[in-house]
Design a protein that fits this description.
Blueprint lengths: L1 E2 L19 E6 L10 E7 L2 E10 L8 E9 L4 E5 L12 E5 L2 E5 L2 E3 L5 E3 L3 E5 L4 E3 L13 E5 L3 E5 L2 E2 L2 E2 L3 E5 L4 E5 L14 E5 L2 E5 L2 E2 L4 E2 L3 E7 L2 E10 L11 E5 L2 E5 L24 E6 L4 E6 L8 E2 L1 E4 L2 E5 L12 E6 L13 E6 L2 E6 L3 E8 L4 E6 L4 E5 L5 E9 L4 E9 L1
Parallel strand pairs: 3-29
Antiparallel strand pairs: 1-39, 2-32, 3-4, 4-5, 5-6, 7-8, 8-11, 9-10, 11-12, 13-14, 14-17, 15-16, 17-18, 19-20, 20-23, 21-22, 23-24, 25-26, 26-27, 27-28, 30-31, 31-32, 33-34, 34-37, 35-36, 35-38, 38-39
Length: 432
């Protein structure tokens, strides 16, 4: 088995300058109208997977431009169709959309009155993709909510975590049980600004909800705070909350978030928080989107911060097409441009890999022998497959390590923990 020498050059480059990111963006047919801050999700209409967009704001970026419009994109015919409006009395933004048993639940959001006062919504709207119609609203959210973190646990319960409620950020974990049409009260997170946020986003990996960023504090500053909540599978109202080390990149606000095989991706968004018209809360002017995709490898707690092909912010959801493909639609581009673009995002996990630039480390696999050499003292190291599963682990008291191990052909990550507390992950490729 051999190791390609090409992968060695990666260690010398900061990850944000790598040409190959593993991501491909493909333009699909534009939406019928430009819309931002729209709730986006995918569901099946019969045997056809479709992408749905609910609510949002139009190009006026004014309170009167906030609407209840709905659209559906057919991934087979690649056509957009306008649907019946969301059944509410006033337009809203910052809602979330989730699917359980192929029914779409549109939760929360906020209304903006002509005098710019804002009111959080308690509505839980229900859309049936098969009949293409709205059903009767489900039970109201106990604490009206907008700009919250929303994702589905175990294909059964919708978790609505933190967010803004009328007058401030809240620490609530509100859990909707569609089977019984009731809201459950989950363990709240600590009632501090490094936990509470609006405009944060997150997703589940197994029983663990990871969420990142958002705005908090009296100045509404965007953050790079990173947290997790572990759900008790026997009693999902019980959540163990943990503050993790901050994301090493810039702050994140209104990013799309999704997962694939133990990875969590945060796409786009901005590093500065802003009002619905893209004007920064810190009075720095009009906010532009970040061209980035941040990846958290949950199997071994490492980050990858990549430059994306496009910059888009003001995202309230992403539509899963397959394990490694998604669609985003609408949102906002630079210079307050409300977007009508539809993007297919495809990910090749064999290309993209976390690389933290720590000088002086090499890893080589040949003849069933893995050799690691470093100028810094190594505390421990492990070999993981691309699913984050550990296939080998060892401790070391020195800077050079030689181990005779056998790896099946494939791509692996060598994760090294140094005695000074720093760490590095390097990709190796093995074949017969």
């Amino acid at each position: 088995m051999r190791l390609s020498s090409i992968v060695f050059c990666l260690i010398l480059m900061p990850i944000q300058f790598l040409a190959q990111t593993g991501w491909q963006w493909t333009a699909l047919p534009d939406m019928p109208s430009r819309v931002s801050n729209n709730a986006v999700v995918s569901a099946y209409c019969g045997d056809t997977l479709c992408v749905y967009s609910f609510c949002g704001i139009d190009t006026t970026l004014a309170p009167a431009g906030i609407h209840l419009k709905s659209w559906r994109y057919n991934t087979i015919s690649q056509t957009w169709l306008q649907l019946e409006d969301v059944p509410d009395s006033q337009g809203k933004i910052a809602a979330g959309a989730s699917v359980v048993n192929n029914l779409i639940y549109v939760v929360g959001g906020y209304h903006v009155n002509a005098n710019f006062s804002e009111v959080s919504s308690a509505k839980t709207h229900v859309f049936d993709p098969v009949t293409n119609s709205w059903l009767a609203d489900a039970a109201d959210v106990p604490v009206p909510i907008d700009d919250h973190v929303q994702d589905v646990w175990n294909d059964s319960l919708i978790f609505v975590v933190t967010g803004w409620s009328n007058n401030g950020n809240v620490p609530n974990a509100q859990i909707f049980d569609p089977a019984n049409n009731q809201w459950l009260v989950g363990t709240p997170m600590p009632n501090f600004n490094n936990w509470k946020a609006f405009g944060a986003s997150g997703a589940f990996v197994g029983d663990t909800l990871f969420y990142l960023g958002g705005a908090s504090g009296s100045s509404f500053g965007a953050t790079n705070n990173f947290r997790k909540g572990v759900v008790d599978s026997n009693d999902p109202t019980q959540i163990e909350w943990t503050q993790l080390e901050d994301f090493p990149g810039s702050a994140g606000y209104r990013m799309a978030c999704t997962t694939s095989n133990h990875r969590v991706f945060w796409i786009g968004g901005s590093s500065v928080s802003y009002n619905f018209d893209a004007d920064a809360y810190n009075n720095s002017g009009i906010v532009s989107p970040e061209e980035r995709i941040a990846t958290y490898y949950s199997g071994f707690a490492l980050w990858e911060d990549l430059v994306a092909d496009q910059g888009v912010m003001d995202l309230r959801g992403i539509a899963r097409i397959s394990d490694n493909a998604w669609i985003i639609c609408g949102g906002m581009e630079a210079n307050q441009i409300v977007s009508n673009k539809t993007w297919l995002l495809e990910y090749d996990p064999s290309v993209s890999v976390e690389v933290q630039p720590v000088a002086g480390l090499s890893a080589m696999y040949a003849n069933d022998e893995l050799k690691i050499s470093s100028t810094a003292a190594i505390q421990s190291w492990e070999v993981l497959n691309m699913s984050g599963q550990r296939v080998f682990h060892a401790k070391s008291s020195g800077s050079k390590v030689v181990e005779r191990i056998t790896l099946s052909p494939g791509i692996y990550l060598v994760h090294v923990q140094f005695q000074d507390g720093s760490s590095l992950c390097k990709k190796i490729v093995a074949w017969h």
